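User: quick one - fold this with iron/sulfur cluster bound?
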Amino acid sequence: MPWVNQEMCNGCGACVDECPVGAITLNEMDKAEIAEESCIRCAKCHKVCPEEAVRHDSEQIPEHVEKNLEKTRRLLEYYDTSAEQQAFMERMIRYFSKERKVIELTIEKLKVLRDGMAGSAAS
Ligand code: SF4
Ligand code: SF4
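Assistant: Sure. Structure tokens for the protein plus iron/sulfur cluster:
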């Protein structure tokens, strides 16, 4: 999912014009914003931006990790005893392990799908 670095955006609107599904708008500060639910991940906004302000998802990994940690710390406050807190932490680790498994299996299946498409395109 692309995202816009607001400090780099000059508000030119090129990405707004280029987006095939109208997923990008300029906010009140004249900075581009992408509506995640509308984006079809075509990458056209990356290519057209003169400031390289449209950034790749991978750059947000540290932020996503911090959000997960924040959520865990917030929920941890509901538990009083050390035993309860330990049990909660175990559940969170199991939860994120499950999430990792879901992602790994999804990637495996996407690769099979992609390879199948390449095979049918060649034939
Ligand atoms: S990746 Fe494509 S669909 Fe998504 S915001 Fe950029 S131009 Fe629009
Ligand atoms: S093309 Fe780049 S600089 Fe122009 S509005 Fe979009 S994100 Fe901002």
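One thing worth noting: The two ends are 32 Å apart (CA to CA).
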